[in-house]
Amino acid sequence: MSTIQADIEARLAQAEPDVEVLLAEVVGGKLVRLFIDHPDGVSLGLCERVTNLLPELRERYSLEVSSPGTERPLSKPEHFRRFVGRKARVRTRGDHEGRKSFTGELIDASDAEVTVAADTGVVSIPYADIHRSNLLGD
């Protein structure tokens, strides 16, 4: 998890404890893209409240807050566990078994790695090697 994501999670923990930060990423050095979720869904009002709770971040970056959509980001072991059985794309930081992208069914998610039934066979990828991952819409 990125430092910026940890900082955002810490700030939201008190004011909006039911908000789950799915992914926070810096894009082009100028924009922070923040994907959030909530047990009651993500409304425009919730996105505005989250935006207003991050004034220091907004001083340094443009901030884009949104719901996860159908191609929900997966960034933590619990995200992968929740969606075992669903199809996802996992992209690695470097070559992993000669490839950097694996698409297939999530078949297991331990505390250390995720296992994907990709088109080239079953592959286990340590979370530390994952650059980005998301569910694929049905």
Question: Please, could you describe this protein's structure?
Answer:
- The chain is an alpha+beta fold and 138 residues long.
- It is built from four helices and eight strands, in the order H-E-E-H-H-E-H-E-E-E-E-E.
- A hairpin with a 2-residue loop joins strand 6 and strand 7.
- Strands 7-6-5-4-8 form a five-stranded antiparallel sheet. Strands 1-2-3 form a three-stranded mixed sheet.
- The protein folds into two domains: 3-66, GMP Synthetase, Chain A, domain 3, CATH 3.30.300.20; 77-135, SH3 type barrels, CATH 2.30.30.
- Helices cover 25% and strands 43% of the residues.
Could you name the key traits of this structure?
globular; alpha+beta; 3-stranded mixed sheet; 5-stranded antiparallel sheet; 138 residues; GMP Synthetase, Chain A, domain 3; 2 domains; SH3 type barrels; 4 helices
